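During the reporting period, our protein records have gained a structure token line. One record among many is quoted in full directly below:
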Amino acid sequence: ADGPGPDRDARPRLPKRRAQEHLVPQLRDEPARRRHDDHTLHDPGLMAAFQRGIGLAEAAPPPPPVPPAGPTGPQRHDETHKE
């Protein structure tokens, strides 16, 4: 395989990836650190609403079964086939 061909050193170098280059500038940096005085708001109704939604979903009747996929093209109805 020592025939004429492109010299490997003559090939252009592939571009190098740079971390998070595809992100918008606002998202490239790490998120700002939260201060200790930042408290997450406690919403006692949030878990209750979540549990109520789960209960409603579990109590709902199951959806009807999906009919099996049959032939999608036109079907022949020959009178030659008799049972």
